[in-house]
UniProtKB/TrEMBL annotation, chain A:
Keyword field contains rRNA-binding: no
Residues annotated as domain ABC transporter: 26-256
Enzyme's top EC category: translocase
Catalysed reactions listed for this entry: ATP + H2O + polyamine-[polyamine-binding protein]Side 1 = ADP + phosphate + polyamineSide 2 + [polyamine-binding protein]Side 1
Entries under InterPro entries matching the protein: AAA+_ATPase, ABC_SmlMolc_Importer, ABC_transporter-like_ATP-bd, ABC_transporter-like_CS, Mo/tungstate-bd_C_term_dom, P-loop_NTPase, PotA-like, Transp-assoc_OB_typ2
Organism: Roseivivax sediminis
Upper taxonomic lineage: Bacteria, Pseudomonadati, Pseudomonadota, Alphaproteobacteria, Rhodobacterales
A Gene Ontology BP annotation from the UniProt entry: putrescine transport
Family: Belongs to the ABC transporter superfamily. Spermidine/putrescine importer (TC 3.A.1.11.1) family.
GO cellular component, as recorded: ATP-binding cassette (ABC) transporter complex
Descriptive protein name: Spermidine/putrescine import ATP-binding protein PotA
TrEMBL record, chain B:
SUPFAM superfamilies according to UniProt: MetI-like (SSF161098)
Protein family: Belongs to the binding-protein-dependent transport system permease family. CysTW subfamily.
Annotated signal peptide: none
Membrane topology: Multi-pass membrane protein
Localization of this protein: Cell membrane
UniProt organism field: Roseivivax sediminis
Residues that span the membrane, as ranges: 12-37, 77-101, 113-134, 165-186, 207-232, 263-284
UniProt keyword Cell cycle, yes or no: no
Keywords, alphabetical: Cell membrane, Membrane, Transmembrane, Transmembrane helix, Transport
One CC-aspect GO term: plasma membrane
PANTHER family named in the record: INNER MEMBRANE ABC TRANSPORTER PERMEASE PROTEIN YDCU-RELATED-RELATED (PTHR42929), PUTRESCINE TRANSPORT SYSTEM PERMEASE PROTEIN POTH (PTHR42929:SF3)
Designated name of the protein: Putrescine transport system permease protein
Record-linked CDD domains: TM_PBP2 (cd06261)
Length: 381, 296
């Protein structure tokens, strides 16, 4: 199992956020938004750079939609300011912003044809007819909708409607495109296809995309950076691999992907800590640069795919004995829930690399699980 | 068998309450006036068999319809009815649309109450409400007294017994029929559509004309027909509020029937009125059909 960290495996091709000279396209400066007593966004500061595909990820009610609506101009911040290319846009109405939005349920005009829907924004700019024709045709080609130009929205499929909405919001060539749960109405297979299509279109047009989603897989797939939100605050902003492999908090570790969390007491050791977590169990070894006091409460988060499962004891940094109590067979991999002697359950994943319908482990099997010190993540809270 | 019964029921209803009366009226319109009971001839005598039926059919003619074209009273009454109905419909739309719009934009918890307020007048008899307008509009009525007390006018306005009073009566009576269908279409509309229009560069007013108005057009057309169709044949309002100079076909029909006791001519007037109404009714049906297709 690889112990390489995210930075080493991922080549830094596009990372303006690491460049101190880069100027962000969008700057949130201490933005707070209150609705009556309720604080939807709490003193938020954030930079988004040009050509980024930025994802706002969080459970419903975390404030991600409010943030997007402030970018579109449907809400104004209670405190703080929002800048777009250096210009304060806090009070600029939505129809005067170089920002377009793709709405959650697409909000296509039902009385207009696909062509007219896409041309809507261009006509409002008072462009010439020839120019509009050209641009609409270009958008239809980009979204592969040429055949449906004359149809009304209710005469096309859900996937096609989604593409019309995208074409319509891209037609005016906005500096920033906002996507509010753009794939939420599609079924799983179509959603996965469309994710790659979205990335492709984003790359082709060079537009900055900000996507709002509650689907972590979607955010991880499409985004250059992900902001994980919770109760009006941003908990962590980072690239998908960093979010996954180096979560900043227990909340992020738990929200993104599958994880087993073990609470314990930290003891300094070479290259990191050992964590005492249960009577009669060996302390867990974790490599970490975190600065914790001797004897502090801490958590070890461990992803199931980093845990190996064996019938016999294997030499490793962390080796525990347990019983298989549950098996989740997913085809490409199997997840085993292993109960340790103290009753705690640790998840371990095995890739099914061989074509064998018989599983290597079954219920009530005595097994050994192990992982290296670099695989666990030490978290303070 | 059950299905047949379900289908048969509305057809029986139509047969008994529309088709049979219509055939009787049509038959009377083809008869001649007579001093008899019933006051027309010929009448069908089945006891004489085939000869009776032949006699009966040979007695029918289009004389009364020809008569309607000769006296200009009738076509002027038709024309004036259509005109009054048309103007009333426009006024009702101008008042009804903002009401429906306001209701649809009101907070959701207020909507049932507002809807109730629109329907509430139906709890009082239509006739009593029209009489109430006499009390308001007459020369010593509430409206004139208030205006005179406020020194806005020095002599009472002559509103009652004029065509203006008929407009007031029709607009007041049929307003709910305009408001309800428009409200139904506006209420269904997704607010995100307006946001989308604004997001794409339309002003608030632009969003209304480009999105709200076209999307509510089905309700507007339905409301207009629901006002226009009954207003053409309206009899009570012009006879109570309109004076002798208000010419409407409903009144002419009533006078032919009860004052002149000329049942055949009255029937002919009714048949022509029905033919005039068929056009807007068919258009109305087609609008409903299209509306359903658009939603389905």
């Amino acid at each position: 199992m690889s112990t390489a960290t995210a930075e080493r495996t991922r080549p830094a091709v596009f990372a303006p956020w690491d460049d101190p000279d880069a100027t962000p396209l969008i700057e949130f400066r201490g933005v707070t938004k209150r609705f009556g007593d309720f604080t939807a966004i709490d003193d938020l500061t954030l930079d988004i750079y040009a050509k980024e595909f930025f994802a706002l990820l969080g459970p419903s009610g975390c404030g991600k939609t409010t943030m997007m609506r402030m970018l579109a101009g449907f809400e104004t911040p209670t405190e703080g300011s929002i800048h777009l290319s250096g210009q304060d846009i806090g009070r600029v109405p939505p129809n005067r912003r170089a920002v377009n939005m793709m709405f959650q349920n697409y909000a296509l005009f039902p009385h207009l044809s696909v062509w007219e829907n896409i041309a809507f924004g261009l006509k409002r700019e008072g462009r010439e007819k020839g120019e509009i024709d050209e641009r609409v045709t270009e958008m239809l080609r980009l979204t592969r909708l040429e055949k449906f130009a004359r149809r009304k929205p209710h005469q096309i499929s859900g996937g096609q409607r989604q593409r019309v909405a995208l074409a319509r919001s891209l037609a005016k060539a906005p500096k920033l495109l906002l996507l509010d749960e753009p794939l939420g109405a599609l079924d799983k297979k179509l959603r996965e296809e469309t994710q790659f299509e979205l990335m492709d279109i984003q790359e082709k047009t060079g537009t900055t995309f900000v996507i709002v989603t509650h689907d972590q897989e979607e955010a991880m797939t499409v985004a250059s950076r992900v902001a994980v939100m919770d109760e009006g605050r941003i908990v962590q902003v980072a690239t998908p691999p960093v979010i996954y492999e180096q979560p900043a908090s227990l909340y992020v570790a738990d929200f993104i992907g599958d994880v087993t969390i073990i609470e314990g007491t930290a003891r300094r050791a070479e290259g990191g800590y050992t964590v005492e977590w249960a009577e009669g169990q060996p302390p867990l070894r974790v490599r970490s640069g975190l600065d914790l006091a001797e004897g502090a409460r801490c958590h070890v988060a461990i992803r199931p795919e980093k845990v190996e499962i064996h019938r016999n004891r294997v030499e490793d940094d962390n080796v525990l004995k347990g019983t298989v109590i549950d098996i989740g067979y997913l085809g490409n991999l199997s997840t085993y829930h292993v109960r340790l002697a103290d009753g705690r359950v640790v998840k371990a994943q095995n890739f099914n690399t061989e074509r064998d319908t018989r599983q290597p482990f079954t219920w009530e099997d005595e097994v050994w699980i192990n992982w290296t010190a670099g695989c666990g993540v030490l978290l303070e809270r | 068998m059950r299905r047949l019964a379900v289908i048969a029921l509305p057809y029986l209803w139509l047969l008994a309450l529309f088709l049979v009366p219509f055939v009787i009226v049509l038959k009377i319109s083809l008869s001649d006036i007579a001093v008899a009971i019933p006051p027309y001839t010929p009448t069908l005598d089945l006891s004489e068999g085939w000869a009776g039926i032949r006699d009966f059919l040979s007695g029918l003619d289009f004389e009364n319809f020809v008569f309607l074209t000769q006296d200009d009273l009738y076509w002027r009454a038709y024309l004036s009815s259509v005109w009054i109905a048309f103007v009333s419909t426009l006024i009702t739309l101008a008042i009804g649309y903002p009401i429906a719009y306001g209701m649809a934009r009101a907070a959701p918890e207020w909507r049932p109450t507002l809807l109730m307020l629109v329907i509430l007048p139906f709890w009082t008899s239509f006739l009593i409400r029209v009489y109430a307008w006499i009390g308001i509009l007459s020369s010593d009525g509430i409206l004139n007294r208030v205006l005179m007390d406020l020194w806005i006018i020095d002599a009472p306005l002559q509103i009652l017994n004029s065509t203006n009073a008929v407009y007031v009566g029709i607009v007041y009576t049929y307003l709910p029929f305009m408001v309800l269908p428009i409200y139904a279409t506006l209420e269904k509309m997704d607010d995100a559509l307006l946001e989308a229009a604004e997001d794409l560069g339309a002003s608030r007013l632009g969003a209304f004309w480009l999105v709200t108005w076209p999307l509510s057009r089905g309700g507007v057309v339905a409301g207009c027909f629901l006002v226009f169709i009954p207003a053409i044949g309206e009899f009570v309002i012009p006879s109570l509020l309109g004076g002798s100079d208000t010419l409407m076909i409903g009144k002419v029909l009533w006078e032919e029937f009860f004052s002149n006791r000329d049942w055949p001519v009255a029937s002919a007037v009714a048949i022509i009125l029905l033919l005039i109404l068929i056009v807007p009714i068919v258009l109305f049906q087609r609008n409903e059909q299209k509306q359903r297709e658009r939603e389905g």
